[in-house]
Amino acid sequence: MSEYPAEAIPDQDNLYLRVHRNHFLRGEILSPAFKGHPPGALSTNWCKYSTPKEARAQGRQPPENYGVVGLRVGAVRKIPQQVVLHSPLPENRAHTDVRGPKGTDEVIDGFVAASTWKVRLGEPL
Amino acid sequence: MPLLEQPTKVAYAPPPIVFRATGHPTIGGLVVSRVAYPNVRRTSAALLSHVARSLLQDEIARSSWIVELGDDWDEAGSPGYAPETLDAAVTILRRLATLQEQRGSFLPVPKILPGLDGIVELRWRSQEWRLLMQVQPSGEATFYGQLTGTSVRGSLPADEQKLLDWIDSAIS
After folding, report:
1. Cα distance from A53 to chain B (closest Cα, Å)?
2. Which ipTM did the prediction report?
């Protein structure tokens, strides 16, 4: 149970998503980057409580293995069946889930189109 | 008179075909340059067809490594890709290219990419439009595209004509 309350996230805010180097190829973010763990629950950081570099540093692997993309909340909410849910953790107040099925063409296209690089792969720490 | 003098020795070997923004004919928004075709005497529909097929073939050849990805290739638990899935994607792509050419234009070359859960993905992206197609291990394919203000979705082969009509409007 988190000590932080869940808050409403405005449409104009950004969510930061770590993208592992294995999910970036030929200038494209691959679909598995948006799958989530467990499937359907995509973990991101809300910009109110996190910077892109902080999000990059929270992966299981060294930060140099990740880039970070920003996802505008309003754009994410327009992707079919996707729900943005602030779900703070004791160690990460920014933690936000994007819940919903991730496998359809329209959903994948929506996430790809909504992504903008905030920290590129290989960028200095 | 032949259109090309020994073109294949140039067209199918590195360095890749070079394009530049001039007044030359285009394929899917790209401009054919004589840099890669120094022996071209004149451009024509036959040459454009030749280049379009060459570009498509390059992409297909480039995608062959996808089937070498084993289970957990991304260290996130994703499964590998069956050769049959890639074959199905290539078959669909070749068919669409042929049908598009019969309509008098050329199918822009997509990127062939590893997708979710063993699916092979085809992605087209330009400034004005984008199209994503997923080919399942079963060989079934679905697609979704967006062009300013309009979208298209469906599955193949049922919605093939709808897809081709939409591509026509996107690239025209």
Report:
1. 21
2. 0.91
